[in-house]
Structure prediction request, 185 residues.
Amino acid sequence: MRSGQPSAARARCWGNTMGMFSFLKNKGESSPDVGAAAGSVSAAVPPEGDVPFSVPEALNIEALTAPVDVPSDAAQMGPVDAARTAELQPKIVEALKTVFDPEIPVDIYELGLIYDILVDAQNRVLVKMTLTSPACPSAQQIPSEARYKIKAVPGVTEAWVEIVWEPPWGKERMSEMAKLQLGFF
Prediction:
């Protein structure tokens, strides 16, 4: 229906003063008579450049049209510093013990989801962890919460959480406390 002529429905909208968006126009202009719009399609077409809706100045539409700046979430770590890792690891473990899987009443450290904690010379931390299942419904929430809690540890300058699937998680990775709490003994 792109022949250059507007559809009858569009003609009715432009010609009707009670159109769906007429309250947005607020210009005090009078619209053509409905009867005139029904008789002549060209009478209902707005003049060139006339837009039925203008964006209020208070709205910033640049956020809707600007290209998305996607930050790189890839870990940008230097070589692992064993001394700094040994220094920060207990604090990081304590922070990770406050992150829980919402479906299991045990923290992610005791569940055995944390595979490795690495710290470089600039106190940037990389934690390699897994999830109980690739279809885990909390796959976005758990790593994000872990990252922010690690970043809150005094001395940590940056943190990344990397999800790994090898080796796969199993019940044998859980601590004795987690097994006892979940009734696996």
In short: The radius of gyration is 30 Å. Strands lie at 114-119, 124-129, 158-163. Confidence is low (pLDDT under 50) at residues 34-43.
